[in-house]
Amino acid sequence: MNKNIGVYVHIPYCNSKCPYCDFYSLADKSRAREYVEAVNVKLKNFTKDNFCKADTLYIGGGTPSSLPAEMLCSIVENVKKSFRCVPEEITAEFNPSDADEDYFKKIFASGVNRLSFGMQSAVDSERRSLGRRADKNQVEKAVLLAKKAGFNNISLDLMLGIPKQTGASLSESIAFCAELGVRHISAYILKLEEGTFFYKNSSKLNLPDEDETADLYLQAVSELEKAGFLQYEISNFAKAGAESKHNLKYWRLEDYLGIGAAAHSCINGKRFYYPRDIDYFINGGEPIADGESGSCEEKIMLGLRLKEGIKKELLSEKSLNEIPDLEQNGYIKTTPENISLTPQGFLISNTIINMLTE
Ligand code: SF4
Q1: 258 in a domain, yes or no?
Q2: Residue 14 beta carbon below 6 angstroms from any ligand 1 atom
Q3: Which of 23, 155, 289, 349 would you call most buried, defined as having the most Cβ atoms within 10 angstroms of its Cβ?
């Protein structure tokens, strides 16, 4: 294999568990050093048999910044050494409450050139309801310190449909992001994941209902675009040229290697993953096969997440017959070769994908 791949490294540690989150993460970091060593061994082993270049690296989690900077730097160094190249885009997810000038300087010097901060909201009461420790001033300080250390490619996460959120409070969060001069925003609608505190207590949370959440989403698309953040994916918005190169690989079905507990890979048409179990990973457990990738259905499903949409040639005759109605109702846009979803279409994307893949 001689091509470019994206590398994802999962850091399964967080200082505390947010009440809505079902990502694989642990508070006990006693095996963190062994875990990072196991990541570096897997990187080396993969590149022994596969001649490819890593053009993107994404260190996600969990909370990568809950580990010492040296551990993150060691992962970056090992990716460079194992793949014999410097990835063009190297992202680390960062909790604003971990912000520290020295930490930023160290990871920037190692090659990390993009940061993704878990902000969720610029309104302190909303952040608190999500279990977030940093207040708005700390988020601002984190972004300014990161910029001072050299980072100019910064993303902030925004959450939509959170307890007590209103149109006015969302506008406040978006204005805050725009004023901070970041180049990328991920705006996710809160999903109640089974097993989480939010799932079990949803009736007591004062959550916006489905229609209110849909309005918040449409408001976010419109206000972000006015602030120069162009939508390129159902939940992602960027200033020109600041789209996440790594995440685009997932939606475009390009190859990526996932290393770490709960990390998923897709390489040469095969999917595989590591279980949600750090002991399995540290003990050298192999990834588990998860079927083939690249079916027409999958291309439609992932491609319609993107603003660029999909080629009409992927659709069956029956699905093509659905297009005029969907277009008339404002859910899709078409060109002679392509179809793509509008913001209204993104809101009902599952229904549309089901219609087009039946
Ligand atoms: S910091 Fe992120 S990964 Fe960790 S518990 Fe909170 S939402 Fe989940």
Answers
A1: no
A2: yes
A3: 155
